[in-house]
Design a protein that fits this description.
The protein has four domains: 99 residues, no CATH class; 76 residues, GMP Synthetase, Chain A, domain 3; 58 residues, no CATH class; 48 residues, no CATH class. Helix content is 32%, strand content 17%. It is built from eleven helices and twelve strands. The strands form three sheets. The protein has a five-stranded mixed beta barrel. Strands 9-10-11-12 form a four-stranded antiparallel sheet, with helices on one face. The protein has a three-stranded mixed sheet with strand order 6-7-8, sandwiched between helices. A hairpin with a 4-residue loop joins strand 10 and strand 11.
Length: 389
């Protein structure tokens, strides 16, 4: 049986429900939202709190929820306020990332947030910055080697989570007592790393986009300089480090493709023997599958670029005791490289053409004005000339 969906802004009203406001980190697009029966598939709902803090709760009261609804959820003690970010089938796929199952124990969703709940929530959030500044001073007075990077109040204001960074283990028992006496709330300390702190603060990366850790990255995989070596990236600490002073997470994005492509190239320590002499590895283009060899180990001399397939063929010939006349095959042509348009001409050529066009139009205008003046003078002379001449 064919179902007909009512048109809504040209998208049949299906994808609009999954968009929501893109004003929060780790915001996901629920592409199944709006499909009939999607919300009833599971009673587990994904709820997001401040920054990268997310949780999964059970909608045991069967409250009709959709993405963007503000709800009051169970907390210890009291309740917390969060925003629904996902419902339906995709929630079960998100549970796999956190190693949870639908049979696990989840806290409950009490209700949709009321105006009274939102007033308490606004009051609690307004205290976060001042609490963070004052707690840093308290930790400094106690001579604790730690940095409190963020404070997150619970929706009802009864509890606060203090996120801190420390290189070594910190005994913060005295700190908890002092904070509880000063702020009159329940204190929870949570240690995070430099990457998690950058994700909570946010920012713009050198690529011009918002930080990956503040948008979609939830699991932080260790990054090493080996990933940079596989991609032939210069091992410059200033360029490889991100805003968290750690190696950039994006170094791991393409390393698998480079490792797979490098298998089609020979080992860099292998020397190629020809009748002209011995060739040593100089450089390679992994994505193009080309290797450049030099007749000198230390400086570029008599550079020859061949394909990885040809290099393996020469290596097999050397194993049999044979030496080809040259590395390149007879009649082998160099592949055409893609040339950037900016390398062909100066980008200011458009400005020069525009200026010359303006000068040309200006000169034409001056010439036409001079012609008009000459015609006017001739007409006046004819009118003033005496009759009979």
């Amino acid at each position: 049986m064919e179902r007909k969906y009512k048109e809504n802004n040209g998208c049949a009203g299906i994808c609009c429900h999954g968009c929501g406001k893109m004003d929060a980190p780790l915001n996901t697009f629920d592409w199944l939202a709006g499909i009939p029966g999607n919300e009833d598939y599971t009673d587990i709902v994904e709820v997001q709190f401040k920054n990268t803090h997310k949780g999964y709760y059970k909608n045991s009261n069967n409250i009709p929820l959709k993405k963007g609804d503000i709800v009051a959820v169970e907390a210890m003690p009291g309740h917390d306020i969060g925003t629904v970010t996902m419902t339906g089938r995709l929630v079960l796929m998100q549970l796999k990332k956190t190693r949870l199952t639908p049979e696990s124990e989840f806290k409950r969703i009490y209700r949709k947030a009321r105006p009274v709940d939102m007033e308490k929530y606004a009051e609690a959030k307004a205290r976060e910055h001042d609490t963070m500044i004052r707690s840093r001073q308290i930790a400094k007075d106690l001579n604790l080697d730690m940095k409190i990077g963020d404070v997150e109040y619970q929706g009802d204001g009864q509890k606060a989570i203090f996120y801190y960074i420390a290189d070594n283990r910190v005994d913060f028992r005295q700190l908890i007592k002092v904070l509880a006496d000063v702020f009159k709330i329940k204190i929870e300390m949570k240690q995070i790393g430099a990457r998690q702190e950058a994700g909570r603060i946010g920012g713009i990366g050198p690529c011009g986009r918002e930080l990956c850790c503040a948008t979609f990255t939830t699991n932080f995989v260790s990054v090493s300089t080996t990933a940079a070596r596989f991609q032939d990236i210069s091992l410059n600490p200033q360029k490889l480090a991100g805003q968290c002073a750690k190696l950039k997470c994006c170094l791991n994005y393409e390393v698998d493709a480079y490792v797979e492509a490098s298998r089609n190239l020979p080992n860099r320590d292998v020397e190629l023997e020809t009748q002209d002499g011995t060739y040593y590895f100089f450089k390679c283009d992994i994505m193009r599958g080309e290797v450049t060899y030099s007749t000198d180990k230390h400086i570029p001399a008599n550079l020859v670029t061949i394909s990885g397939k040809r290099a393996f063929a020469v290596i097999e010939m050397n194993k049999r005791g044979e030496r080809p006349e040259s590395l390149q095959l007879n009649g082998e042509k160099e592949c055409k490289r893609v040339v950037d348009l900016l390398e062909q001409e100066n980008i200011n050529r458009f400005d020069n053409a525009q200026r010359s066009g303006k000068k040309h139009r200006k000169n034409n205008g001056n010439r036409s004005n001079n012609r008009d003046r000459k015609h006017d003078r001739r007409d006046k002379n004819k009118e003033n000339a005496p009759k009979g001449e």
